[in-house]
Amino acid sequence: MTKNIHKKFKVMERKFIKISICLTMFSLMFIGMAKAQQNEITGIVRDTSGKPVQGAIILVTEHSDTQAVSDKDGKFVIDGQIGQHVEARTENKASGKMKIVKPDINITLKNGTSVIPIGFGQTRKVDEMTSSVGFVSGQKLTNKGVINPENALYGLIPGLTVLQNGGEPPTNVNMFIRGRETFNDNSILVLVDGFERPLSSLSPGEIESITVLKDAAALAQYGQHGANGVLLITTKRGKSDELQVNFSYDQSITSPTRLPEFLNSGTYASAMNEALQNDGLAPRYSQAEIDAYNSGADPYLFPNVNWFNQVLRDYGNRSNFNITFNGGVSNAHYFVLMNYVNDQGLFSPVNQNDGYSTQLKYGRFNFRSNLDVNLTDNLLFQVDVAGNVINQNKPKGGNGPSQIFNALYSIPSAAFPVKTPDGNWGGSQIYGNNPVAITSSTGYSSPNSRELFLDGKLNQDLNKFLPGLSAEAAISYNNYASYWESKTKQYSYEVINPVLDNGGNIIDTTTTTYGEDTELNYWSSFGNQRRSSDLLGKLNYSRNFGDNELQSMVLFHQNSMIFNGQNNTYHRRNFAGNIHYGIKQKYYLDVTASYSGNNLLPKGNRYGIFPAVSGAWILSKESFLANANFLDRLKLRASWGMTGNDRLPTNNPDIQAYHGGNGYWFTNQNNYQGGFVEGRLATSNLTYESSYKTNFGIDAYLFNKLALNIDLFYAKRTNILTNTDGLISNVLGVQDPLSTDGIVENKGIDVDLLWQDHVGSLQYHIGGQFSYAKNKILDMNEAYRPYPYLKRTGNSIGQSFGLQAVGFFKDQNDIANSSRQLFSEVRPGDIKYKDQNGDGVINEYDEVPLGYSTGYPEISFSANLGFDYKGIGVSALFQGTAHYNAYLNTQSVYWPLRANNTISSYYYNRRWTAANAQSATFPRLTTESNDNNFRPNSIWLADRSFVKLRMLEVSYALPVSFIQQWKMNSVKLYARGMNLFSIDNIDVLDPEFVSSGYPTLRSYNLGLHIAF
Q1: pTM of the shown model
Q2: What is the pLDDT of residue 891?
């Protein structure tokens, strides 16, 4: 990060700390008022049998930051007000709710336990679950202050790994459930209210809960579409007969987490000369010129431009408005949401044009209306309308932000001034792009998009025909379209060259102008479009027979998706069923099966059967554990089954490929006509990937305070589409077909811990999660390799391979007495490699496995902690990864000076020279491509593990008795920081985004939430 940004950022940090302290002081001013005016509500939480429930979380719905925990007798004390509502939860799952009508109340949990969604509209009591699922309530997403709800999922659900992918809004992420099992598309299936939709299309405020399905017992019902895991998003629905209004406003400032620092012009000139001399070439700069750069006396001939300071401001800003309406009457309820987000980016020279800005802007309006109407006593009708409208603004130059940052990471400070003495843009025939000019003077583009989601559902109770029978029918329609508008222009730039005498002194200058200034030119284009529709029919049957209970369902589901272009329509069809059987509320068995197929596969291989079986045993209900007072609940789970993955390449691998070849000259006019030749051969027996999954789980609740969940899992995936390099001789002139011979196994563990307790009015929690997923390639139809260590088979997917460095060459004698390195000419200071096979030559046969994957971590973990005391709350979330690597090949930062790029201070201070050969980290400076140094090897492979403070919040909820005089139910003030710091081994860039693109961001938020 540049020194200037560092200083200003420190000022921002101090301001944020002061604001947080002021908010806390403000909170403390109201504690006395809270004690004096807020009522004390006491009560007992019981299950349906009347037994007290220990460890239930009790909260006031209108004042959700005030919480209590029931003791061993089910008793609790909480601050509340008559007329408000209290809600009891077990293990963070909603379970019981009632209105406060007197200071002493009793809460009965519905069905004695909580329920969570498990797919296709089904819910299951937590105690009765036999499958492996993760769950998070929507309340935990709304306190993150993010645009994209994907960015609120860091460290919340064990088994779900979320990695940030740059900072350009809406800041998409990479997500994995239990690592990877395939070489191909590993995308998670995301379902919103049962239908496939992007999670990023939602706002956090409309999400009721998110369930992660992880094992075959949960995934088999999705057939060919479930092997990569499923995210079930349930949106909020109307629950209350009284109108409830919630309004929130969040104002943020954003800043880069890390930016590299590049050399000033004088040091850059010296570094360039050093590199040229290392390459045996003449230096580019005289000492007089270097002195002139260092003096700064002539900023036009000898500029010293900090391009980051010229193009970026110290911070961006973001506003987030959210309002919801929840209410209804006895037979109809509604939930309505409107959310607007406006994000202003980091670019600085954006208002230099009359009438328009080139700032990076992102604006999104989300809306949702969920309506539930009981048409009769037995017929429920649900209609949902939702969507979003997105308007963006970007600098137009080339590819916008990506081209700007490419210039920032390549152009030296000595290249040219921002502007010449005549006020023209500075430039160079070598570099061309002036970062400030392409930010402010190439026009702007406005990508716009909109999404619309429509759902209609009917639920008919058929008890009159058969007790316990019901039927459901649903249809959905999704539509997405994007449109690009832009106004572009070109700019002229001026190149200043000094005229030197024989002594190297400047006697004159010459200027040359290139390009031309043009007027704005309008351009528009249709961007992208996709449409999808769903049809769902389902029968449910549920009955109790004495100590036995039965739940079952059968369904038919068809999904059609249409994308741009020809042959881009996909149909999926699924028949599925499930039987859930329980005995004495202690023993549970699930049998699931689906028969699903799609039109992506050739006829004959389109459909498959996907069975699964799972069971659970609640040991804590057995008599032999009746006296184990420390044990409140103990359950064992096991499952086995099969799921599929039909996310195959869309270029029809089962069809013979052809591509352009040589042509012939025809007719008297000698016209040329190109020809076609055979390309990749067709793949035989193309089919879906099959994943066989096994899971063993333990769920426990101990000491009335500690919730513990542990899952051990193993999966073996077959029929993975893979390359067959070398299977067919090149003499035949065709490419090898893809094969379905790939096999990968994946195994690991998920752990989730949560300790909740209270000391008087102080409520606190400490939790942690740990996930480990290790895969191994068992077969990938790998071509012959002469040495075992070269084989990819037996390693993990994405395993890093490269040469093992043993240091740097000291001198020519060291080079002469070492194995020959054939990639390029070797000089002192170049990387020296280990000869793995002892043949005296270093080449591609000396590459070995190095570290771990650069694409995803094997280990993910998190820790969350917080407390609440009479409305004052503090919470923090730490998240991290391990067994994770990155190749440090970012231009100029790690691979400098090549192709006339600049060089970072980080590299320069760690480079090899004859004087610091023993302490050097990086090889010598060079201006050449130098294939010996700049290739995958252990020098550039870095440990990418990190621990980040993802969120820190300080909040204060005003006393209810104080705010009710203004007809409000709750008021919360908060100060929040996101991505505040990272502990890692990548010093100069963010470990999640080791790239030259738009940087990852930290944010500081101040917000207000009001409930009426």
Answers
A1: 0.86
A2: 94
